[in-house]
Amino acid sequence: MPNLRIALAQTDPRVGDIAHNTDEVIRWSRQAVAAGARLVAFPEMALTGYPVEDLALRTSFVEASRAALVETAERLAAEGLGEVPVVLGYLGRKPETSSPQNCAAVLYRGEVALRFAKHFLPNYGVFDEYRYFVPGHQLPVLRVDGVDVALAICEDIWQEGGRVRATGEAGAGLLLVVNGSPYEQGKNDGRLELVRRRAAEAGCTLAYLNMVGGQDELVFDGDTLVVTKDGELLARGPKFEEALLVMDLELPAADRQDPDGTVYSDGLRLVRLDLGTAPVEQSEPAPAQDFPRLDDEAEIYAALVTGTRAYVRKNGFKSVLIGLSGGIDSALVAAIACDAIGAENVYCVSMPSRYSSQHSKDDAAELAHRTGLNFRTVSIAPMFDAYMESLGLTGLAEENLQSRLRGTLLMAISNQEGHIVLAPGNKSELAVGYSTLYGDSVGAFGPIKDVYKTLIFRLAKWRNELAEQRGETPPIPENTILKPPSAELRPDQVDSDSLPDYDLLDSVLDLYIEHDLGREAIVAKGFDPAVVDRVGRLVDTAEYKRRQYPPGPKISQKGFGRDRRLPITNGWRRG
Ligand SMILES: Nc1ncnc2c1ncn2[C@@H]1O[C@H](COP(=O)(O)OP(=O)(O)OC[C@H]2O[C@@H]([n+]3cccc(C(=O)O)c3)[C@H](O)[C@@H]2O)[C@@H](O)[C@H]1O
Ligand SMILES: Nc1ncnc2c1ncn2[C@@H]1O[C@H](COP(=O)(O)OP(=O)(O)OP(=O)(O)O)[C@@H](O)[C@H]1O
Ligand SMILES: NC(=O)CC[C@H](N)C(=O)O
């Protein structure tokens, strides 16, 4: 069996920054070739970043992507890297109609030697690729060093048949799939299972390459996989980190001569690129690479850190600003921010009012002390008194005023000092509208907006335990984790005055939001009908608040935003 050394570049492209992405392709290809790779691959649309959304509809952007593809091929050759084929995802167009396509190409000897477009387009959850792309109908097969390598793009393996079945029919020795597959809790186990099943169906080894990094609300976790047709896991990339996976694969020698244009299942037509190269004897085997697996909390926390870092950095900011109340939400956001961009770039403000307890002020200062982030105190009392004198507010209006004064203060400091404001709202609050519009909901990015309150507590404890294991100071004060959550907008207020306990609330929200169950189905699971009705009503009438909330990293199967699109003006009240 010929040995094929492949290099899978698990990279972090930047959407729209084609020049940067091109430089990265050259840089990683240089490393791959130096490591003896005979085939190098990059993720889905690595040249443009992914997803590009309506940029796909701009002719200038499509043409820039296509031109950069040609230029990348030329630059690779000019650098002496042209003898190794590079598989690279880009934004292309259908030649006959100019419709945009989600494409990949093989670059070889200074030229774009083969182009193809994604066959199955995802159009659910966060994806709406039928808005942008038309599908491709080819089965691309690259013959390199005597091995037939079939190529596919992400969704191509998530649906039955298509390129997976055609790969089997064409008798390829390897199926290489380039991906832009966003993170969701538990998705990696599902992916491994899927990749195993598809490798068996294709009847060959499957190399699954995914990108890393963050793009607005999406986080890409890498977790590149190589699996044999018998389901043996040969290699697995790290989570959330860039890496070059170089490995030697023993693959069957190509023995098929199906002519170009052969039509397989689903009407997929063979397009063959035969490089005419012979297997290469490697002097040393590729060194084994082993990356640690992450447990549930570690994985979710890493996703939040990755998403926050990507948003802040890719939007050109150096520092963030957070209102630090001494409560668990802003504490976790501060810990995430410190891990994402370093405590020296995290600025926090304590903004006490007459209702702020001493422990809240102390807990906020204690967190600052433990982490070393930048901390100051600005009392909202004088501004509050001025408003009250002018307007004489009471009840909810008085409560919300405090939150809004804090929001205005944060925005003022942001404008003055150039930090980007992080909003500390969690998914439970967002679900029931338990936040003040233009108050604690101000901010540019919400690191924990897709995290239920019960999970916030788990993550805070996990982060502190991690610090202990590493011999470091746990960032979050014990008291912040132990005390009952309170907005402190009136004397002795606690969240449980107006909301069910978070364990109960999150259980109902999980069924209503994540599982889309209706009222009767939730009640049938043993929940109090009055609680179910109340929670359902709160969720349904808070859509307007969610639409005005900043973006934040998606970690669940149903993040508020593209995963769950409901009308704001909505008369349907039966769950
Ligand atoms: N469908 C709709 N489309 C657009 N706007 C709509 C609307 N329905 C109401 N509105 C408007 O929304 C405004 C009311 O919303 P808003 O001003 O936010 O006020 P509201 O939702 O009435 O009150 C805020 C709630 O959040 C709780 N809270 C506040 C702060 C922090 C925390 C915490 O612990 O984290 C909790 C607070 O206890 C209270 O229950 C009004 O101006 C109303 O006219
Ligand atoms: N005294 C305060 N100083 C600074 N920021 C505050 C203060 N009180 C509230 N905030 C800001 O408003 C957000 C909402 O806080 P609130 O105390 O109302 O409820 P919460 O959702 O339980 O949040 P937390 O757990 O962070 O306290 C906080 O996360 C924080 O960013
Ligand atoms: N980019 C894609 O085609 C992604 C779709 C696929 N179902 C995934 O989440 O991995």
From TrEMBL:
Pfam families: CN_hydrolase, NAD_synthase. L-glutamine binds at residues 124, 181, 187. Signal peptide: none annotated. Pathway: Cofactor biosynthesis; NAD(+) biosynthesis; NAD(+) from deamido-NAD(+) (L-Gln route): step 1/1. InterPro entries: C-N_Hydrolase (IPR003010), C-N_Hydrolase_sf (IPR036526), Gln-dep_NAD_synthase (IPR014445), NAD/GMP_synthase (IPR022310), NAD_synthase (IPR003694), Nitrilase/CN_hydratase_CS (IPR000132), Rossmann-like_a/b/a_fold (IPR014729). Deamido-NAD(+) binds at residues 400, 429, 545. It catalyses: deamido-NAD(+) + L-glutamine + ATP + H2O = L-glutamate + AMP + diphosphate + NAD(+) + H(+). One of its GO terms (cellular component) is cytoplasm. GO terms for biological process: NAD+ biosynthetic process. It is an enzyme of class 6 (ligase). Its EC number is 6.3.5.1. SUPFAM superfamilies: Adenine nucleotide alpha hydrolases-like, Carbon-nitrogen hydrolase. ATP binds at residues 323-330. Residues 4-251 form the CN hydrolase domain. One of its GO terms (molecular function) is glutaminase activity. Keywords: ATP-binding, Ligase, NAD, Nucleotide-binding. The active site is at residues 44, 118, 154. Catalyzes the ATP-dependent amidation of deamido-NAD to form NAD. Uses L-glutamine as a nitrogen source. This is Glutamine-dependent NAD(+) synthetase. The lineage of its organism: Bacteria, Bacillati, Actinomycetota, Actinomycetes, Kitasatosporales.
